[in-house]
């Protein structure tokens, strides 16, 4: 187990930052209490090994980790990585690992030492932000489709031509397309449909379960 005085930034936020060491010749690992907890263990519960660490890597990241360890042993260089681990309880955590050479008194590299940074909360927030953008995109697309449908109905034009009309209005007024469409959809509630037109649409709605040729015969 590492001396807590060597953890540096980990003292400020022990739940998210923890330190480690790896010795080349003995291929042994040491980790701080925070790194143990990051993997789901209580301090001193297990002895960290390369094999144990590999089992906690996300399956999609495990091969890269094993290659990184092999390269580290061959070249005796530190490694830095951003990957996912799966803790003892099965929870996926996103971590960044940053390391530097660990030198003996003669300046020879005998291992590597550094820290784990738990990025899970930041990653989760990033995913939420992506979800918000996707949701906004869907809403934008929905209102565009509604506005296109209105133009297609009123002017008896195709889907592409209706979109051209909306895009033209957006460009000539220097207004974003989704704003134009949202305004049309919102304002359409105040538009009154004439009696004959409403009657035609009523008939269309009531016969919408029929094949198109039969619908034509009923009108």
Automatic annotation (TrEMBL):
The organism's superkingdom is given as: Bacteria
Q: PAS domain spans which residues?
A: 31-76
InterPro entries associated with the record? ANTAR, CheY-like_superfamily, PAS, PAS-like_dom_sf, PAS_fold_3, Sensor_kinase/Photoreceptor, WH-like_DNA-bd_sf
Q: Does the keyword Kinase apply?
A: yes
Q: Which reaction is catalysed here?
A: ATP + protein L-histidine = ADP + protein N-phospho-L-histidine
Listed Gene3D superfamilies: PAS domain (3.30.450.20), Winged helix-like DNA-binding domain superfamily/Winged helix DNA-binding domain (1.10.10.10)
Positions of the ANTAR domain = 124-185
Instruction: Give the protein name, as stated in the record.
Output: histidine kinase
Organism, per UniProt?
Gordonia aichiensis NBRC 108223
């Amino acid at each position: 187990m590492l001396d807590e005085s060597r953890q540096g930034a980990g003292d400020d936020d022990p739940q998210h930052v923890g330190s480690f060491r790896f010795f080349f010749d003995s291929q042994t690992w040491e980790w701080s209490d925070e790194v143990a907890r990051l993997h789901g263990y209580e301090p001193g519960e297990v002895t960290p090994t390369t094999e144990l660490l590999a089992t906690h890597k996300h399956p999609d990241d495990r091969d890269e980790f094993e290659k990184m360890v092999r390269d580290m042993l061959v070249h005796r260089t530190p490694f830095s990585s951003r990957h996912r681990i799966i803790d003892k309880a099965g929870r996926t955590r996103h971590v960044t690992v940053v390391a530097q050479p660990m030198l003996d008194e003669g300046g020879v590299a005998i291992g590597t030492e550094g820290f784990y940074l738990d990025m899970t909360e930041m990653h989760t927030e990033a995913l939420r932000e992506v979800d918000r953008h996707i949701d906004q995109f869907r809403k934008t697309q929905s209102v565009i489709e509604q506005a296109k449908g209105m133009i297609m109905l009123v002017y008896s034009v195709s889907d592409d031509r209706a979109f051209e009309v909306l895009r033209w209005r957006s460009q000539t007024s220097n207004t974003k397309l989704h704003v134009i469409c949202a305004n049309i959809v919102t304002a359409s509630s105040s538009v009154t449909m004439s009696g004959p037109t409403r009657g035609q649409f009523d008939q269309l709605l009531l016969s919408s379960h029929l094949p198109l040729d039969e619908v034509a015969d009923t009108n």
